[in-house]
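Predict the structure of 3-hydroxyisobutyryl-CoA hydrolase.
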Amino acid sequence: MSEELVRVRVEGRTGVLTLNRPKALNALTHSMVATIAAALDRWEHDPEVAAVVLTGAGERGLCAGGDIRSIHEDARAGGQASAAFWRDEYRLNARIARYPKPYVAIMDGIVMGGGVGVAAHGSVRIVTEGSKVAMPETGIGFVPDVGGTYLLALAPGELGTHLALTGAVMGPGDALLCGFADHFVERAQLPALLAALRTAPPGEVLHRHVRDAPSGELRANRSWIDACYSADSVEEIVERLLACGVPAAGEAAATLLTRSPTALKVTLAALRRARELGPLERVLEQEYRVSCAALSSADLVEGIRAQVIDKDRAPRWSPGTLAEVTDADVARYFAPTGGEGLSLAASASSQEVPW
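Done. Here is the predicted structure for 3-hydroxyisobutyryl-CoA hydrolase.
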């Protein structure tokens, strides 16, 4: 079954992974994570495979994230299946970041949540004019994971804070600016690029297909984003957004006031901590603690219900306001898990891959 959900094949000198749940926007399951990990293990020492390419089936996108319906069911039942899934998923994210061969992610269409985890830690990350990249977790009472807080913390200025708290979508230009992607290739050129990768390494073929990306929105909004999101608390961020007089800032404040107050405060704390933690592995370990804590929270179940199950778009958060979320509430998310945690070997920097 897992081989059907991820098509694994070798084309010329390239190992190709195709996420194959198009009706579910290629949302990741535990078995899919295991299939990808096993393929990477096989190909790492296979001299016939020079590079890995990740793509998604269908026309809508690479991957919309994890299977949150399954997470909802597990959270309601008080189970541990989601914790086991995250443990293996985050290990895969770290493995992708350190993979010794070029790992080419085709980030066309929707790339969100877990899709970012299997794509944006790769060594060659390609976006198109159709790319929509985001970490929208606060909208379901969750916190950015899969190494998302690592990437967001590295974005210029406070752009990552804005993206993390609001869940705003990045087009190709903004994904490049914020460090979620490396190259822009027009969608019509993808078949030719993939064909070229069958016989030559990325460094020899990319220049024939890479173009300048369309301008994004974030660069023009950098001044008010940096000024507002540098505040020490979510409450102050909202106050600054409302007071700065820029319409887009007011819209961001309105968005924040619809998000889970607890998720917002935990996300801000996670981002600020991520800046000090060092390599990706340390951040993933923190994210695992946070995710496991969220699994037992009312907001995760309620957020998925409102956005995905019932689709009434009217979550009833608990606590319902930012003022009601205490420092102790936030600290609970960063405490040791109490069960099997996540421990990852880390190196000081990503391995250089041979091009």
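The longest strand covers residues 6-11.
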